[in-house]
Design brief:
alpha+beta; 142 residues; single chain; seven-stranded mixed sheet
C-alpha cells in the first residue's frame, strides 16, 4: 500500500532515487540532494512542503512544492518515482498532495516538465502546456 507523507528531512534512502535518476540522465534528484545539503532549498518557506511516497518502509518517490520565484504561484518541483514503481499510483498521489498544498497558497501552479514523460504526466494531472521562460505547464484554480 502506497503512503504519502509530508517530510521535513530528506528520507535516509534518498540516495537510491538519486542514483537511478542520475543513471537515466535526470538531474532533479541530484539537485534536490545538493540544494538540501547547501541549505538553498529546504521546502520550508510559508506554503512550501516536501512529500515522500513509501511502500511499507521503502521510499519509492518524492516531490515538493515551492514558491515560484517569477510569479504569484507555487511550483511543482523535484517529482521522481522509481522506474519499477511507476504506473502504480505513487506519482499521482505525490502530485495530488503537492497540488493541494500549492493551492492553499496560490491560484496558479507551475511545473517545468522537461524530462522524458514528464510533460505527459502533468498533462494527465490537468496542467496545460504553455510557452513561458521558466516553466512548461501551469494549472489555475477554477
Amino acid at each position: 500500500m502506497i503512503r504519502v507523507e509530508r517530510v521535513v528531512q530528506l528520507p535516509l534512502d534518498i540516495q537510491t532515487l538519486r542514483e537511478e535518476a542520475d543513471r537515466d540522465g535526470i538531474r532533479n534528484m541530484g539537485l534536490l540532494v545538493e540544494e538540501w545539503a547547501s541549505g538553498f532549498e529546504r521546502f520550508d518557506k510559508p506554503g512550501e512542503a516536501l512529500f515522500a511516497a513509501f511502500d511499507g518502509g521503502t521510499l519509492i518517490g518524492i516531490g515538493g512544492v515551492t514558491i515560484e520565484r517569477d510569479a504569484p504561484a507555487m511550483r511543482m518541483r523535484r517529482l521522481y518515482v522509481l522506474c519499477d514503481r511507476r504506473k502504480q499510483g505513487a506519482g499521482r498521489a505525490l502530485a495530488a498532495a503537492m497540488m493541494a498544498q500549492g493551492f492553499q497558497s496560490a491560484d496558479l501552479l507551475t511545473s517545468n516538465a522537461r524530462p522524458p514523460g514528464a510533460a505527459e504526466f502533468w498533462d494527465a494531472m490537468g496542467f496545460k502546456r504553455i510557452a513561458a521562460p521558466r516553466w512548461t505547464h501551469e494549472l489555475r484554480r477554477c
